[in-house]
Specification:
single chain; mainly alpha; two-stranded antiparallel ribbon; 11 helices; 2 strands; Znf_MYND; zinc-finger; metal-binding; MYND-type domain-containing protein; zinc
Length: 249
């Protein structure tokens, strides 16, 4: 029996059925039907465990981030996000990876937390999120100094090629979750770096919230190393739980 759209119950050939890009199981005939079903579907799609947000390992300013996944780690990443140098002094390939994953996590957050779908992404049934990523990079480039001085049209093309390379983890043909980011980069709060950078670029956090206070708190813990990082994990865990519930980031 042909699958029916869970919202309007129509089937092929009357409509074209596509499955949710996140869970690859629930069938919809259109973005409108997918959005109409979001309140119900979000309960079973992309729901993250509370346990992953409540851990509190230390992550102070003297600790390099991330622990793996990039050629080079940096210290005081939230301070760098605040002053616009987070992408500076990194290998070119690392910059490409960070841009791609900042975008991928943002569209994932928009989808799972707010039910908003980037029409030019895999969440809308597109083969890749390249068009949506290009818009994101345009926004990054609109902020003077966020991109490193070597960035140009040629480097942008290299970045896009990396994102479309199926052998790369940062693949624009695939969705990514917070838990994937944590596992791949080996740093409990690296997803917060990506989220705060996206907030810096787009001007709003998830749900339209302002991330200024959160960024200032995280950066202040990087400056104050007197407690050897004992409070950093606790603060980040509280912020992260708040993010999951109120979409501040």
């Amino acid at each position: 029996m042909a699958p029916a759209c869970v919202t309007c119950r129509k089937t092929a050939p009357e409509v074209t059925i596509k499955r949710c890009a996140k869970c690859s199981s629930t069938p919809y005939c259109s973005r409108e039907c997918q959005k109409a079903d979001w309140k119900n579907h979000r309960k079973v799609c992309g729901k993250e465990s509370a346990g992953s947000s409540s851990s509190s390992p230390s992550n102070h300013g003297g600790q390099a981030s991330p622990l793996k996944g990039l050629e080079k780690s940096v210290t005081k990443p939230f301070t760098k996000i605040g002053n616009g140098t987070w992408l500076h002094d990194r290998p070119e390939t690392d910059v490409y990876r960070l841009l791609i994953d900042a975008y991928r996590l943002r569209v994932e957050d928009d989808y799972t937390m707010d039910g908003n779908i980037d029409n030019d992404s895999v969440y809308a049934g597109s083969a890749s999120s390249l068009k949506g990523f290009r818009r994101f990079v345009d926004r990054v480039a609109s902020h003077a100094g966020l991109l490193p001085s070597w960035w140009n049209a040629e480097k942008r093309a290299c970045c896009e090629r990396l994102g479309m390379d199926p052998s790369q983890w940062q693949n624009l043909c695939r969705a990514v979750e917070k838990s994937d980011i944590i596992e791949h980069y080996g740093t409990p709060f690296f997803h917060m770096e990506l989220r705060m950078f996206a907030w810096k670029v787009l001007g709003t956090g998830i749900g339209g919230q302002d991330g200024t206070m959160v960024l200032e708190m995280m950066a202040s813990r990087e400056v104050d190393d007197g407690d050897n990082g004992r409070n950093q994990g606790k603060l980040a865990a509280v912020v992260d739980l708040k993010t999951m519930k109120t979409s501040i980031l």
